DNA sequence: CAAAATACGTAACATACGATACAGCGCTCC
DNA sequence: GGAGCGCTGTATCGTATGTTACGTATTTTG
């Protein structure tokens, strides 16, 4: 069973003529990056001619050079997507059904934050803290609880925070209250919900500032969003994981609270006394 | 000091117009592979036009697209050469306001799972999967979204799963439906809510099997619970973090789903056809 | 040792790719 | 409300790229 192109090559390198073998060896030596460059560069690196490279990839079973490159890219993508598989040391993972799930979740969080700069988070926090209008939050089938969670916290440190719940018709009608000064926080991961996309589009047309929490494949709502947070969701389970997005949400809640420290503290004391 | 293109992007993403920002976000989301594909593919993935992609790379300081791709490839090459550097990175993110929060959260999860054996989790999953009656879920002020999240998933793989929402009176009345064969999942972290404690006590008296998600200081409900999950909640923020509990919840959801695999799959297919 | 077959590179070709000019649109600022 | 500016997509263009045909060199075989 051959799963990678590198294996395929070492499998057939014996049957190749001299020049093609040199091509194969240079590819293995700087795998797989040389293969992603142009035929001319590849051939120069290997010290052979361009047609030799093309004959080489043809012998591997690819119809043409681009097809070969796509295969390499797919392989790379799979490798980069799950850092777990690379560092996976079966010894440490006690063999229980739990650990892989936890490991994947931790990886997802690291990856999510690796693609998310402090600057971006600060920007979003500032948007949420210093918006001049209202804040609305909404989520999809599985992510709506995240919207609720965030709303529950934000509503304590600032006024005019609303979670949009219930039937579609109900929150669609709230669009009439939304304008340029307002912020709409949307949670939407696969499978993306049409109703949410439509909602986001309309809100966008009304000039609402949209902050989107989505997965790495980006909900179509990304087109309308001013800020996009792409969290990793893949775990060894039947379901996608929203844990990474949850942590980002908590981070933002913390950041907003900090930015509103002075006003927020006063507000919290007021709330306490209301009990 | 900017060492990677990803950093360069997050540094300048603030100064970019909307469409270029979309390009930036899609690149970050599938970093860096999208950038190695053709302009046409990149633009399609981002939902913008080709010139926008070119303007985007120009803004990053590259003379042309190939030069941009070469830079990405060089970066990838460096990364692939030394796998250490990519896992080593969390410290390098500059000590911004983010890292401590993330670090603390990751620690919380590790600690939480360290005190939680596979056996315990399997037991709880079995309880939830093979209960003979109904499952009820409820949470406190900030944790109710977690109850909702879990309910949303469990309700798909098995029947008779109910989230108790709304006013106290409403769910108090549901006690009349609860008995020995039923399971009640409660989320309760500081500050523990009296109403929940009373509710749990009554349910316990009726013989309901209680599964409690709480923090490391244990809600008073622990006295009535058959299973207790104690998650770490401390983070450098004004709020406690429910992230660890969230991950445990997801883990349980996954485990229950696996245990119900055969029946659950049938049920999921049925649900799909209902749409 | 000769003849054939295979391997390999040079050079011409066609295509698909990146680049550019331009026009429409929305937004902001008087 | 109007003028100006900046952003974005469409259409076009030139070119770099992959591809192919062909001739020479090299090896193989009878």
From TrEMBL, chains A, B:
GO terms for biological process: carbohydrate derivative metabolic process. CDD domains: SIS_RpiR. One of its GO terms (molecular function) is DNA binding. Gene3D superfamilies: Glucose-6-phosphate isomerase like protein, domain 1, Winged helix-like DNA-binding domain superfamily/Winged helix DNA-binding domain. Residues 3-79 form the HTH rpiR-type domain. InterPro entries: Homeodomain-like_sf, HTH_RpiR, RpiR-like, RpiR-like_SIS, SIS_dom, SIS_dom_sf, WH-like_DNA-bd_sf. Keywords: DNA-binding, Transcription, Transcription regulation. The keyword Transcription regulation applies. Pfam families: HTH_6, SIS. This is MurR/RpiR family transcriptional regulator. It comes from Mesorhizobium waimense.
């Amino acid at each position: 069973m051959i799963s990678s192109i590198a294996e395929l090559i070492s499998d057939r390198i014996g049957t190749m003529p001299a020049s093609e073998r040199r091509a194969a060896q240079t590819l293995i030596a700087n795998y797989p990056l040389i293969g992603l460059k142009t035929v001319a560069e590849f051939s120069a690196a290997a010290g052979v001619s361009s047609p030799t490279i093309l004959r080489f990839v043809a012998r591997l079973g690819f119809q043409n050079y681009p097809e070969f490159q796509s295969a390499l890219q797919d392989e790379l993508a799979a490798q980069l997507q799950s850092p777990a598989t690379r560092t996976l040391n079966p010894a440490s993972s006690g063999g229980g059904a739990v650990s892989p799930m936890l490991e994947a979740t931790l990886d997802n969080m690291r990856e999510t934050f690796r693609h998310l700069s402090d600057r971006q988070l600060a920007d979003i926090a500032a948007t949420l803290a210093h918006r001049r209008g209202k804040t609305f939050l909404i989520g999809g089938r599985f992510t709506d609880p995240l919207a609720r969670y965030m709303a529950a916290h934000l509503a304590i440190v600032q006024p005019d925070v609303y979670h949009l719940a219930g039937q579609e018709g109900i929150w669609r009608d709230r669009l009439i209250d939304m304008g340029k000064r307002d912020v709409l926080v949307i949670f939407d991961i696969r499978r993306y919900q049409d109703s949410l996309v439509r909602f986001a589009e309309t809100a966008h047309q009304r000039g609402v500032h949209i902050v989107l929490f989505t997965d790495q494949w980006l909900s179509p709502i990304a087109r309308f969003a001013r800020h996009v947070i792409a969290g990793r969701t893949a775990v060894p389970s039947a379901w996608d994981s929203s844990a990474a997005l949850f942590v980002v949400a908590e981070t933002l809640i913390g950041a907003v609270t900090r930015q509103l420290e002075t006003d927020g503290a006063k507000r919290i004391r007021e709330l306490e006394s209301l009990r």
